[in-house]
Amino acid sequence: MRRAVARWQTWWTRLFVAAVLAGVLLPVAPWGLVVAVLAFGLSLVRPPATTRGPVDLGAPLRGRWVVINGPGTAVPSHGVKAYGQAYAVDLLQPAPDAPATLGWGLRARRPQTYPSFGQPVHAMAGGTVVRARDGQRDHGARDTWPLVVWMMTVEGFLRELAGPGRILGNHVLVRHEDGTVGTYAHLRRGSLAVREGETVRTGQVLGEVGNTGNTSEPHLHVQVTDRAPLTAGAGVPMRWRVAAVVGERDERWSTGPRRPTALPWFPENGEVLELG
């Protein structure tokens, strides 16, 4: 039942907003408040946690990458379990000239100036492409305080109303042979190398790292769920067979010691990995 309710998360959120607007703009009966409260409660329902153990997979990228928002520091790694993100991880290659702190300008840095942008993204396991979406533009980085606030409030709210596709940006979903589903998000516009229904093998290039969807700078968001769609899927822990911790740490992305909920085998936020 929880999965059935969670599947319609986007529509519960839309219903809540519509009921609130109706209550503000129209002299409606108290039913508007009842609908708003009910819709809000339903929008918070999440699928039950998975009972599956960690899945062993190939790495989605090649070369040196920094872990951010990963399950090696805390679970849920992105602060929420929505859209199957409990064990999701973001990976990026830091820009060597990136400022140590956020500024106050309103001009967004072009995504093409980041080293992560355009890097090939590889399938972590073989399977069938069940969703492949392209066409969203690569927007400028949200690398100043005004732009970050915009992304976290107005832009984030509008993407939430639009649904998971706008949050993920250009993305690919691959259903593996064991039934789990790998998600690769924020891909560069025009870079998708696969189409829906296609069978892919482990290591095959799916697309390129981009800056589409709900993202502050070019990076890859990757996760595994126990099913699709993402609103009905629960996150599944990942283990990459070819990942090696370099022994370096990028303090810009370090968020402190492991929390009690963290996965002990997964690298912490800020740690540098050699993937290949």
TrEMBL record:
Pfam families with a match to the protein in the record: Peptidase_M23 (PF01551)
Residue ranges annotated for the M23ase beta-sheet core domain, each copy included: 162-225
Superkingdom per UniProt: Bacteria
Record-given protein name: M23 family metallopeptidase
PANTHER family per the UniProt record, alphabetical: MUREIN HYDROLASE ACTIVATOR ENVC, PEPTIDASE-RELATED
